[in-house]
Write a structure and sequence with these properties.
about 200 residues; mainly alpha; Arc Repressor Mutant, subunit A; Tetracycline Repressor, domain 2; 2 strands
């Protein structure tokens, strides 16, 4: 029953927003009493904490880091998979700040997750420097900053869609945006080759 509640809650949160769905609406959608719902999750906070654990487990199952660093030819697919993951839990990425303010423990866990994601991006950038695809860091700490900006672009992509009412912008647009951020640092040799400059980003087709 808990899994069923979590799935239905995610569906409603995605449709209406996390803070606009009270527990009674979830119980109504499930055709159970509020008491039955609170038997499994005593509060909306308890429900959200379980959903966040489910989010982390889902992300872990995608093996993003392993697929990026250990396999070749899957980079574009990995970018799509990650954004599909975000789409699955888009309510969270649209209301991240309010959710982590309301529930500090989720905030603590999410900050740890963000640090891991930014670190993966940093490693990817420095790997591309080693391969000659990106120029050596033109200013100390620049690629660290770039990694954070790339993370921000991904993390807040769905919030951007909602704010701008741009529902047509898909994962291809997100990847293209990242490509534009990275392009100024691509070496002339790699530009001449017209090859992939970093996972999922090509200068030409």
């Amino acid at each position: 029953m808990k899994k069923k509640i979590i799935r239905k809650a995610i569906e409603l949160f995605n449709e209406r927003g996390f803070f606009d769905v009270p527990m009674r609406d979830i119980s109504s959608a499930l055709e159970v009493s509020v008491g039955s719902l609170t038997y499994h999750f005593k509060s909306k906070q308890a429900l959200m904490e379980s959903i966040y654990r489910y989010m982390l487990k889902t992300l872990e199952g995608l093996a993003i880091s392993d697929r990026l660093f250990q396999k070749k030819g899957e980079e574009l697919e990995v970018a799509a998979v990650y954004l599909e993951y975000m789409q699955q839990f888009r309510f969270f990425f649209q209301d991240t700040l309010d959710i982590i303010r309301a529930y500090p423990e989720i905030g603590r866990q999410h900050r740890q997750q963000v640090a891991e994601e930014v670190n993966i991006i940093k490693n990817l950038l420095y790997m591309q420097v080693g391969k000659g695809a990106l120029a050596p860091e033109p200013a100390l700490g620049l690629y660290d900053t770039l990694a954070e900006v790339i993370w921000q672009t991904l993390h807040f992509w769905f919030a951007r869609q909602a704010i701008l009412e741009d529902t047509q912008a898909g994962w291809e647009d997100a990847v293209r945006t990242i490509g534009h951020l990275v392009f100024p640092y691509v070496t002339e040799e790699r530009k001449a080759e017209g090859l992939e400059i970093m996972p999922g980003i090509r200068l030409s087709e």
